[in-house]
TrEMBL record:
Recorded superkingdom: Bacteria
EAL domain boundaries: 24-272
Organism: Alterirhizorhabdus solaris
Name of the protein in question: EAL domain-containing protein
Amino acid sequence: KAKVDGRGTFRFFEGEMDARMQARRAMEINIRKAMALKELELVYQPQVHLETNAVVGFEALLRWNNAERGVVSPADFIPLAEEIGLIVPIGDWVLRTACHEAASWSQPVSIAVNLSPVQFRNAKLIESVVSALASSGLDPGRLELEITEGALLENTERVLSVLNALRAIGVRISMDDFGTGYSSLSYLQKFPFDKIKIDQSFVRGNTDDSNAIVRAVAGLGASLGIRTTAEGVETVEQLNRIRAQGCHEVQGYFTGRPMAATAAASLLNATSSH
Ligand code: C2E
Ligand code: MG
Ligand code: MG
Ligand code: MG
């Protein structure tokens, strides 16, 4: 009797695994088709300077518009795309598209592009960046590459050589989601970052601790000569708070949601001085 139950349980579990594997397989097939079907899109979120209130840049954020699933968030498909190696061609498309779009803007503001740790480890990364810059004609100084701690876990020498090669091209490097991983302080010392993006969790926290952390990171940035951006600001109270805490820039729903490329271009037209 016990054996029958055990077997029944096992079968049930097996069936569930099958369903999950099938869903994953279907997702994989769909991601593979996404580029060919032109289902990928970039939206752009403004980055605002806290002293001048001017839009000084945009972050390109990936969206997948799938016929069956609707708009799929990057959090839901990038991990699988990384696992099956597709993040490399997708990331290449993101770089090219973002650089081309930014090159057409009426103001020379910066464009931030997220790099997956898998892309960062890929031998063709430098080639891909150089090629996106060359074909778009974008000034390399306008391109900011955002990396997370996951990219820095490798051998320090290799990480440094990639970062230095990128900086030699003239692009800037931002540390994204700062404070959410491990050993962040040692990374600031080891690696040449141009910007620290303070993670949303601290910005929206509004506890004594999260306020102390934002203030400390802003101070750290100021003394190390690294610009700081507060991510995920949703209210005027949060905006005033991070202003007082000494961050340079803000990016969040309060100052602008991610928007279509045409809307980003219009926003820049509307605020240009001529
Ligand atoms: P991230 O790079 O930290 O991007 C910021 C995320 O916070 C975006 O989510 C943005 O829409 C969201 N956000 C901005 N302001 C606010 C706010 O005020 N409130 C709230 N609740 N959220 C806000 P999104 O677009 O869903 O992207 C999630 C993550 O996916 C990104 O986090 C990034 O790690 C990754 N990602 C997005 N696009 C790409 C890409 O092209 N390549 C790679 N490798 N990763 C990407
Ligand atoms: Mg980012
Ligand atoms: Mg972030
Ligand atoms: Mg994030």
